[in-house]
Amino acid sequence: MSDKFDVIVIGAGPGGYVAAIRAAQLGLKTACVEKYKGKDDKLALGGTCLNVGCIPSKALLDSTWKYHEAKESFAVHGISTGDVNMDVPTMIERKNTIVRNLTGGIAGLFMANKVTTIEGHGKVLANRQVEVTAADGTATVYEAGNIIIAAGSQPIDIPPAPVDQKVIVDSTGALEFQAVPARLGVIGAGVIGLELGSVWARLGAEVTVIEAQDKFLPSIDEQVAKEALKTLTKQGLNIRLGARLTGSEVKGEEVTVTFSDAEGEQQLTFDKLIVAVGRRPETKNLLAADSGVNLDERGFIYVDDHCATSVPGVYAIGDVVRGPMLAHKASEEGIMVAERIAGQLPQVNYDLIPGVIYTHPEIAGVGKTEQQLKAEGVAVNVGVFPFAASGRAMAANDTTGFVKIIADAGSDRVLGVHAIGPSAAELVQQGAIAMEFGSSAEDIGMMVFSHPTLSETVKEAALAVNGAAIHVANRKKR
């Protein structure tokens, strides 16, 4: 038996590393177990999000959007550039540098907070013990007062398109292309598929997105989804809905995919194919048979509202448990669990977890959608304000989309804030703050917003809820 810790965290992603730091801040002797290695074959903290997810994809999205603007939009500002070229390997190396800086930053935070890093694969045993198997196969067992499982998730594989990371890639492989594929296929029109499809479309790839569902982005507000489909199609994404992939064949450096849709069986050939059909919890070899920790019918670790498993002192957070697979949700769960172990009683408000798709325009929402509220029989008032009426958006030549606020028809309490447009994520976050304090639409409408800002769209949408918008014609009450 090796060292005993008050808390052992398995996984150093946005849930795990945050939980470990918070636990250590609260005076608990804490260790964090991580097995992931970076390109240099050294331990890399930060999990999927930092290494091959949220952060690197945003780096590529920002680089390619700047390229797109320079190529397509600078002229309207009077800026002449001549030929604009993208050096893809330089873009990829910049992304890699950002990842290295951030993973090193977490290692520094662990040192500053006296978190012990244990390298290897963590497995939960009975009696709150953790077995860590190093790369050379040697196993060490550690004793813990409490265990926090934050093992994350991995891309879902599908039999019709087996990933080889050469021609058929997953979301990780799609961040490593060294050249722009002329023809790019994307399986899945979700967050990851749309973001990665956008990256390569901006650089000139002919992108086809194959989505099995008939409805585009069914979980987000219908009005926003409709605008998103129109805008992304205009940007060159060929989005094929109701298209079920049935097979793929790699020949040399191209792949032919077969799918069926309303028009029957179809075939398309691509130079690269990205499989982005979702993620599944990383629970393989994570739990000993006698650990006592239970999985639900979908393979997620069963937890209560406070992330406690069926075993006292063992918790699970982030992508291995119910709820949206979002970094910020995992981080908040990590903090909640660390503080509860320390004797505090915080909670996560699962009703107000914002969701964002980082295309351009951004797509974001918090709270309930209009279709959800209608299905629940809740009477609502809705206010919408377009960026086309925003002076700040006009000045930036970025006027696509709108902000939408939904309020209870009786109490005027804000129940949902949704947006598509410039800085949509930041604007929706203002809605999340207001909703956390139980704000009414009238409350937001009475606040003073600086002019000219994109934030004024939030104020105007709130005013529009009750027919009092100033800078757009109000809808007539039916």
TrEMBL record:
It comes from the Bacteria. It catalyses: N(6)-[(R)-dihydrolipoyl]-L-lysyl-[protein] + NAD(+) = N(6)-[(R)-lipoyl]-L-lysyl-[protein] + NADH + H(+). Its cofactor is FAD. Gene3D superfamilies: 3.30.390.30, FAD/NAD(P)-binding domain (3.50.50.60). GO terms for molecular function: dihydrolipoyl dehydrogenase (NADH) activity; flavin adenine dinucleotide binding. Pfam families: Pyr_redox_2, Pyr_redox_dim. Homodimer. NCBIfam families: lipoamide_DH. This is Dihydrolipoyl dehydrogenase. The lineage of its organism: Bacteria, Pseudomonadati, Pseudomonadota, Gammaproteobacteria, Pseudomonadales.
